Amino acid sequence: MVKAIIAPSMLSSDFANLASEAQRMLNCGADWLHMDVMDGHFVPNLTLGAPVIESLRKHTKAYLDCHLMVTNPLDYVEPLGKAGASGFTFHVEASRDNWQELVQQIKSKGMKPGVSLKPGTPIEEVYPLLDGENSVELVLVMTVEPGFGGQKFMPEMMDKVRTLRKKYPSLDIEVDGGLGPSTIEAASSAGANCVVAGSSVFGAPDPAQVISLMRNSVEE
Ligand code: DX5
Ligand code: ZN
């Protein structure tokens, strides 16, 4: 079975204290820090980009799992690579014409390439990105409409996770949106091994407990 990775979404943190919030999550047992890059165009929200990643990188060696909710992901590869991003996950809906170049560029900058899909996008759309040359190493299945934290988990997305896990036993399959103690079982039993969680972790009195509960569920 693939390794469990718990990635708190820094979108739910206090952005004015990003470095200490990141350290707090690592102290609580986080494996990765999930960084939501939104351009106000692909999604109706605007968050952070390369300058913020670069600032955070000066304070931590942690794996920065960047989720690009942007219309032109190719434009972000070089700046994010320079800034110190570790993973670069773009949306399949934003890269239908140029995903091969995108994956190649991401790899050449030393980042781990991933692809994400919105709830309305069928899983079959990511197959070409997994099978050929220049393939991605992670699939991020959105379990809410991208754009905001604190939304309700969509259990029907677990069919995508199950299908993907059957076809790719050792692939990193990440889920994002509405994950927490009450929804982790659905995700882990479907086969997800990377779990993004924002509000359930940052809103908990004891984030370490929530992180360990989710890890145990994935590793069961
Ligand atoms: C939503 C983002 C998520 C978000 C998850 O578009 O991609 O990473 O922060 O937040 P929760 O866990 O609160 O749903
Ligand atoms: Zn995300």
From TrEMBL:
Keywords: Carbohydrate metabolism, Cobalt, Isomerase, Manganese, Metal-binding, Zinc. Its EC number is 5.1.3.1. InterPro entries: Aldolase_TIM (IPR013785), Ribul_P_3_epim (IPR026019), Ribul_P_3_epim-like (IPR000056), RibuloseP-bd_barrel (IPR011060). Binds 1 divalent metal cation per subunit. Gene3D superfamilies: Aldolase class I. It is an enzyme of class 5 (isomerase). Substrate binds at S9, H67, G147, F148, G149, G150, G178, G198, S199. The active site is at D36 (proton acceptor), D176 (proton donor). A divalent metal cation binds at H34, D36, H67, D176. One of its GO terms (molecular function) is metal ion binding. Its cofactor is Zn(2+); Mn(2+); Co(2+); a divalent metal cation. It comes from the Eukaryota. It catalyses: D-ribulose 5-phosphate = D-xylulose 5-phosphate. One of its GO terms (biological process) is pentose-phosphate shunt. Belongs to the ribulose-phosphate 3-epimerase family. This is Ribulose-phosphate 3-epimerase. The lineage of its organism: Eukaryota, Viridiplantae, Streptophyta, Embryophyta, Tracheophyta.
